Amino acid sequence: MIDIQALIEHNDLLALADRDTQLKRVAATGGGEWAGPCPFCGGRDRFRVQPYYPDGGRWLCRHCTEGKWRDAITYVMRRDNLDFKAACRVLGSGELPRVRERQPRPEIPAYQAPPGAWQAQARQAIESCECNLWAPLGTVALDYLHKRGLQDSTIKRFRLGYSPGAKFSGLRVHRGLVIPWVMGDSVLALKIRFLPGQLYRCEKCGAGVEPGHCPKCGSDNRYRNAPGSRPAAIFNADDLRSFPVALFVEGEIDCMTAWQELGGLGGMLAVCTLGSASSHFPDLAVWGVHFLHLRLIMAAYDGDSAGENGLANLVLLSERTKLAPLPEGNWKDVNDFYLAGQSLIDWILPYLQAYSQPVCTERPESEFTGEAI
Q1: What distance in Å separates the CA atoms of residue 81 and residue 113, rounded to the nearest whole number?
Q2: pLDDT tens digits, residue range 295-310?
Q3: Model-level pTM greater than 0.90?
Q4: Which of 111, 169, 223, 322 supports an S-S bond with 283, CB 3.0-4.6 Å?
C-alpha cells in the first residue's frame, strides 16, 4: 500500500528537477519558486517549480501542461515514460532526494510598499517633476512623449514628469523622464526613463553612454529606479479592480499607449504591465487578490525568452492567462505597432472574441486524486 500524498510531500521535487534542467530562483512567496528551461519540451523559461507548496512540491510548463500545476508523480511519469503505479514505485523506492535532506533556504520578505517617509518624498518629487515637464525645462522629455504618440491627457493621467537630476525633499531622482508607480494612495516606485541624445553613466561599469545597451559591458542603460523604489509590483494596478478582463504588455510606454487607444472598449479592459517581460515575479500573496475577479488575462508579449518568462509569471498569478501577440510585422512592441499606424482595437478585438468562452475559476487539481493505491 503506497501513500500517494506522502510521496508527493516527501520527495524533493526541486532536487529531482534540478537533475534534468538548470533552475534559478525567481520568487520568494510560499517558500520560493524556481524557473528554467523545460526538461521535456526544451522551451526556455516555461518551466516552474514550487517545491514548498503546502500540499507538496508542484511544477508546470506553459506548453507541456498548458500552464496547469502537476505533482512529483506526474513529473516522474512524463520523464521516465511510466504509468501511474510504476512512477509511485520509483518515488517510494527511497533512491530519489527526500524533502528532509534538503538544506534550509533563506526566506525573502514578502513585498511591502516603501516606508511612509520615502513615499512623502516621492510625492513631492512627482509634483515637482510634473511641473518641470510642462515648463521649458521639460521640453526634451515632453517632445519624446509626443513622438511616442502619447496625448497630453494620457501624460497627465499617469502623472509623468521630468527630473533634471536633483533631490526632492532629500530623495535623489536621476535626470530623465519620471514614471510614477502608484497604487491607491501609495507610491511604490519612481522609474526614470533616460532620454535619447543625453549622456548617462553606466550603472555597472561607469562608462558614459546614451540610453541603450552599454558598448563596454552590454548592460541595459535605458531605465533606472530612484533609490528606495520597490518596483516588484504592477503598473496601473488600480484599473484591475474595475474591469473583467486585463491586458498585460511589456513596458510602461506600451501600457499607456494601449490605455489611450483602447478606450473604445470602455467597461471591459484594464491595461497593466510588470515593467518589462523579464521583471521579477510579483509576490502572489500581495498581488494575487487583484486577479481573483478577472475572467481573462491577455499577455501581449514577444515570442522570445523574455516574453515567455513574462507570460509564465502571469500564468502563476492566474491560470486564466492567454497569449495575445501582435501580428507579424516590423515592430517590436505595442507602441511600435501603434506608431506604424496600426489599430490596437482591430488587433485586440479578435482575441477578446476568441477567448470569450467561460473560464474555470477554481484552482487546478492534480491529475490524480486519492490517498493510496
Answers
A1: 46
A2: 899 988 765 556 666 6
A3: no
A4: 111
